[in-house]
Amino acid sequence: MKISFSHLISLLWLLLFLFGFVNAVFASKEYQTYIIHLDHTHKPVSFLTHESWHRSILKSMLSSPADNKELLLYSYNHVMHGFSARLTPSQLTEIEKSPAHLATYPESFGKLLTTYSPKFLGLQQNFGIWPAASYGEDVIIGIIDSGIWPESESFKDEGMSPVPQRWKGTCENGTAFSPSACNRKLIGARSFSKGLDHISKKNDFNSTRDFFGHGTHTASIAAGNHVHDVSYFGYARGTAKGVAPGARLAMYKVVWDTTTEMAATTDILAGMEQAILDGVDIMSLSLGINQTSYFTDVMAIGSLSAIEKGIFVVCSGGNFGDYKTVINAAPWITTVGASTLDRSFLATMTLENGDSFEGTSYFPESVFITDSLLYYGKGNTSKAICIHRALDRKEVAGKVVLCDYSTKIKVSQQIKEVERVGAYAAIFLTDMSFSLYAIQYSIPSLLLPIASGKLIKEYVTRERNPKVKSMKFVFTKLGTKHAPQVANFSSKGPNPISPGVLKPDILAPGVDVLSRICTSMSTPHVAGVGALLKAVHPEWSPAAVRSAMMTTAYAIDNTGTILKSQLTGLSGTPLDFGAGHINPNKAMDPGLIYDMGFQDYIEFLCNLGYTKKQMSVLIRRTQWSCSHKYIHDLNYPSFSAVLTNETRYPVAMNFSRVVTNVGNEKAVYRAHLENIPTGMRISVKPKILTFTRKYQNQSFVVSIELDREFPRVIFGFLKWIDQDSHIVSSPIVAINF
Asked: Tell me, what DSSP letter sits at residue 480?
């Protein structure tokens, strides 16, 4: 066989290519990315910048590449002191011998940080509401928030059917945002800013593009095809589906970085109106405006209009943490509180004497610290609690610092002090594991219970040169007890405007949802579940959707006790958790629902003493009829008896309700009372409800009698249980504030 010269040349080039490719493969495997933490006090004064020092370290290595290969990726001087580089094992060893070296952070794409809340909610690919709802297919969720990153993997439209013909929305052109960025997943994108004097060009985009990331995360959780976790160095960590990955999304940007307020009420209202006009099925608002009378409350006004059009409206109950601080509490809004997951982020610490401790840490990188001196300001209270300007750099720099608990200073202030004096790492004694947000972990730190601190302080006081043998950051622990809990920041009832309507309505995951980002993301979880329910039951009203969520919620944690408060560690009440924690699979088949329509809300408002003008503002009518029902006869899936210091005991109240059968055609429900406290007597008439067809209504009356005054809040539960194991649960609450 003859081979031409040209063929020989081609073959030679192919061999050279393959040789180079193989070498490149082996070289790529040899190099690995590391983040190197340095003691910046070792920087010679001859270097004007940290970056020039970092480059010098890499160039001066004996094993530095001969071809001047760029090793440095990033030089850090604010989030940490050090740099990241692609290094061989021998190069890494050489750097670690430097006296300036403190720790190595091996780059990882942390499986420990995948989004976990859909799994925690019981959503499964081949079971329950996900397959039954086709993942929320074609339900349209409108998000009123800070915008969206359309390029995110969460909003890919692969495999999705054409946009529903009923959709009237559009995608607007704007700064760094083209209408072509929308697709069959992200079907609408608009922004509203006329209520603002100025939009920051530096810290925002004059378009629907998201600068903060809040709106993008909200949309991803509600209906993302994938939800990305992101570390604070910008590396994607893992993916999972949102709650309703088959649903469509429309973003209405009303939150901005401005010189005044972040969101103008005029813009919020405009965004809500446009969402109604565009044809959304679900409206999600993780926004907070101070609770006022309903006729002056933009969220109440806009949402009532949406409800009239059959749109399910879900809002955050607020992040104010105390009693009487719940917002978005109008009875037509589904008001959401925030809960924890059964997942925690931990770090371990072992002293040189072998004693080991486990605590909470949200430090955003994997770090392993060994053989470090441990400092504690024994004999000096100011130094012991790491008070501002108390620590001496000469005593502390490069060491692990122990900061004692004190009511005089917050952990967020202590970490600034230890960072100021060049501490290597820190240990903070506190029983509040949520004392630092993830973004505040500027140096490797862990939070230990105060009880653990006693042993550490004894060791530090006893030893001449106390040392930390090892500290390891950070790993994930699932199955944490007690879970879920009411998040420390979650606003509590009673409803400041109408305390006879129990708020919040329900709990959903809102802590550590996206990686170690500590923020409330409970609202989009409920929006996503609402989309799933609308896909299964398109005929249901917004009230029916909420009722299904509330009556199937659970109020017992994974230890079999009433849901606890993360803030106090004590058992909560329905003022904390409403009807309980959302349970999507159960909500799909609630058995009975407490339904309501627009006229029910008019009846409710008639009893608030509003003027004709105030009523017209709310209901957008000049004429309406009222039958003057009692406020507590609103057909709500909970019961609240409101008392005051002037109430004379004994006292009795009656609550009329109507339930609709949405389960099997023939069903018999029996009333069960649970957890009824001493001093509260409950009767239900009739005690048995018999249904002979689907959508049949039956009425009943709950009577609450209270013998004597009680502290703040007492509660129990009414549960209607049928032969098919439907359990229709409602909290019964007596409030004395």
From this structure: P
Contact 580, 549 (CB under 8 A): no
Mean pLDDT per 10-residue section of the chain, whose length is 737 residues:
44 40 43 76 91 92 66 66 82 91 56 54 91 96 94 92 97 94 97 81 89 87 70 37 94 80 76 92 89 85 92 93 92 95 86 93 84 94 96 95 95 95 95 80 92 92 93 80 89 93 95 53 94 98 98 95 91 96 97 97 92 85 84 94 90 96 96 95 98 98 92 94 95 93
Q: Are residues 355 and 457 in the same domain?
A: yes
Q: Can you list the alpha helix ranges (DSSP code H) found in 254-312? A: 265-278, 298-308
How far is Cα 424 from Cα 368, in angstroms, rounded to an integer?
12
Rounded Cα–Cα distance for residues 50 and 598 (Å): 64
Number of CB atoms found within 10 A of residue 47's CB: 14
Assess contact for 340 and 485: CB atoms under 8 A: yes
Pairing of strands 334-339, 506-509: parallel
In this structure, which amino acid lies at residue 77?
N
Round to whole Å and give the CA distance between 658 and 510. Answer: 32
Amino acid, single-letter form, for residue 323: Y
Give the CATH number, domain containing residue 668. 2.60.40.2310
> Which residue, among 212, 197, 326, 191, has the nearest Cα to 261 in the 3D structure?
197
Per the CB < 8 A criterion, the answer to whether 280 and 250 are in contact is yes
What is the domain-level CATH number for residue 218? 3.40.50.200
Domain closes at, from 514, 540, 566:
540
Overall domain count for the chain: 4
Are residues 226 and 213 part of one domain? yes
Structure tokens at 16: 């050279």
Neighbours of 440 (CB within 10 A): 14
Are the CB atoms for 38 and 85 separated by under 8 Å?
Answer: no
Q: Is residue 139 part of a domain?
A: yes
CATH number of residue 440's parent domain: 3.50.30.30
Find out whether 427 and 446 touch, Cβ atoms under 8 Å.
yes
- Residue 599: both structure tokens together: 């006229």
Q: Which two tokens stand for residue 241?
A: 């589906």
Q: Annotated active-site positions, please?
A: 145, 214, 520
Return the biggest CA–CA distance within the chain. 112
Any domain includes 133: yes
Range of the domain at 727: 634-736
Compute the distance between CA of residue 251 and CA of residue 354 in angstroms, rounded to an integer.
Answer: 54
Identify the CA nearest to 500 among candidates 331, 706, 719, 652: 331
